[in-house]
C-alpha cells in the first residue's frame, strides 16, 4: 500500500471541482498508457483537452447512457481515466476483462449520491463497497483494507449515527493508498487528456 493521504487532503475537490464532484467516475489502470486504455475500451477518438474541467461540456454533449465520453492521461505506470457524469469505470463487464493481469481501482458518484468504490485485480472484484455505507462490503477480499479505509477517513461502524462526512474525499484517499497515484489540483488543472467516446458493454 502506498501513500498516507486522508479525506482532509482532498478538500480542494469541492472547492475547485464542485461540478465534477456532483457526478464523476475516476479510474486508475496499472500497466497501460492512456492510448492503450482507450483502445482496450473500444473508444472512438474524441480529441485532446488540457485539464479535467474541459471534459464537462463534451461529456454532456454525448447524451447517451450507452456511449460515454472519457478522458485519459498517462501518470507514471498508470492510466488515469476521468468521466464527468459517467460510470464506465463501475461496469464489471468492461473492467473485469481490463483487469486481467493488472490492477484497476475505480470510484464513482452520481447526482443522487449513489456511489461505488471497486478494486479489481486479475479478472476478479477483490473489494466493492458504497463509500456512503462503508460498513457493508463485498468481493473476494472484503476486509483486506480495513486499516487503510479507516485511515483514509471512512467510518466503518454499522450504525445510524456513523460519520459519513467526507466519504467521497475518503474514496480518493483510499485510491491513492492502493495505487500510489496522488491526484492533486495541479494534475487536474494541467493533465493532457486523450479523449474518446466508449461503448458501455451490456450484460
Description:
The chain is an alpha+beta fold and about 200 residues long. It is built from eight helices and nine strands. The protein has helices at about 10-15, 20, 35-40, 55-60, 90-100, 145-150, 165-180, 185-190; strands at about 25-30, 45-50, 65-75, 80-85, 105-110, 115-120, 125-130, 135-140, 190-200. The protein has a nine-stranded antiparallel sheet with strand order 2-9-3-4-1-5-6-7-8, sandwiched between helices. Strand 5 and strand 6 form a beta hairpin. Helix 6 (about 145-150) crosses helix 7 (about 165-180). The longest helix has 13 residues, at about 165-180. About 40% of the residues are buried. The mean pLDDT is about 95.
Largest sheet: 9 strands, antiparallel
What's the count of strands? 9
Helices and strands, in N-to-C order? HHEHEHEEHEEEEHHHE
- Please give the alpha-carbon distance between the first and last residues: 32 Å
Low-confidence stretches: none
Can you give the mean pLDDT? 95
Spatial extent as radius of gyration: 16 Å
Portion in helices: 25-40%
Could you say which overall geometry the principal axes of the C-alpha atoms support?
globular
The assigned structural class equals alpha+beta
Approximately how much beta-strand content do the residues carry?
A: 25-35%
Strand order of the largest sheet: 2-9-3-4-1-5-6-7-8
**Number of helical stretches of at least 4 residues:** 8
